[in-house]
Amino acid sequence: MVAMWTVKVVSLGVVGLSLSLELLFWLFSRRRSERVTNKVLFFPSKVACVEHIFSPTLPHSHVCSLPHGVDTSFSRLLRYILSACSSLDLCLFSFSNMDLSRAVLLLHSRGVTIRVLTDRVYSAISGSQIGVLRKAGICVRCDVSAVHMHHKFAVVDGRMLITGSLNWTLTAVQSNMENIIITEEPDLVQPFVKEFCRLWGLNDSAQDLNSVTD
Amino acid sequence: MVAMWTVKVVSLGVVGLSLSLELLFWLFSRRRSERVTNKVLFFPSKVACVEHIFSPTLPHSHVCSLPHGVDTSFSRLLRYILSACSSLDLCLFSFSNMDLSRAVLLLHSRGVTIRVLTDRVYSAISGSQIGVLRKAGICVRCDVSAVHMHHKFAVVDGRMLITGSLNWTLTAVQSNMENIIITEEPDLVQPFVKEFCRLWGLNDSAQDLNSVTD
Lengths: 214, 214
What we know:
Two copies of one chain form a homodimer.
Chain A: H1 2-35, E1 38-43, H2 51-54, H3 73-82, E2 87-92, H4 98-109, E3 113-118, H5 130-135, E4 139-142, E5 152-156, E6 160-164, H6 170-174, E7 178-183, H7 186-202
Parallel strand pairs in A: 2-3, 3-4
Antiparallel strand pairs in A: 1-7, 2-5, 5-6, 6-7
GO cellular component, one term (chains A, B): mitochondrion
Organism (chains A, B): Oreochromis niloticus
Keywords (chains A, B): Hydrolase, Lipid degradation, Lipid metabolism, Meiosis, Membrane, Transmembrane, Transmembrane helix
């Protein structure tokens, strides 16, 4: 009788332990898949005030004719960029959007390490923010090849990739039909991290001396 | 003595069953994560012959001055597109690459349902393949808005997304620095499927009648 009772207790104990491990494993897998960001943003974005993203304490009633407190594709994009804590690597064909430039300058003032790789021709066009970034002391390299550096991607803290069809211009954000993917999938992020390092190395700092200025 | 032996057998049985379930669960999870494609291709692609992708039985020695049997970013991109079994939805700013056009025509001849949504202005430029696709009977719609339809994405069989900075042109493939992501992550694919349907609906077939021809 005692032996049978022991069988039951031991069996139940083993089953209980096994189910607990299974549950822990499932919770861990679920948490991991929840943690990985996979988002898509489409443009054109609704035009709205983004001042509250730069100055969260500012009341919504400040003087501005645009709608306030509206969540748009662009405000979400700004938040993803501003989430950078340690580094931001930008590989951009065209960069003339002043709000995006402001976000990069804000991160720079917070001590985030920023590297900007851009197309030589487009860095010199009217309205380009590349000169503004350079003047602020941000490390900028222009692609030295004869072809277009047509990428439009950013890597936040070496772990989050922001990429798509969207050039960092006002027209792309407010007018064109565009897309942006935000992902933390290592299989997608790591090749971009590697490619950025390769391109950064190819266009070394020596050429900064004769690069385009604003 | 018999009771103790029974305890051991039952306990071992439960542990064995539990471990087997754990192993099956792990194999299933692994297989699932392996099945999901997450790839990145960078361009410019090495220039190589892609004839073997269209005609797999053709010997590599056929008359052509380009390197043969080389695996390039472009040959991989072609293979992903040609993997379509039932449908291919294209949302492209510019489409002038003849090999990509040939791949789409081949899929059309195999009975794959193809829908092409493109930018009105760029569909009319010299070298555009849009007229060729139309003539072959492929359903093409041009974006009717005043802004640019700047997307460069494809959805294969409603489950695989091909997107990035790369326009479907020869310059983008062979010269520029570009990227393409290939993913089956539902969180990334489904928004593009939905956006394609939305844009396709916005630019309904009525406007096909007065659209640009080659």
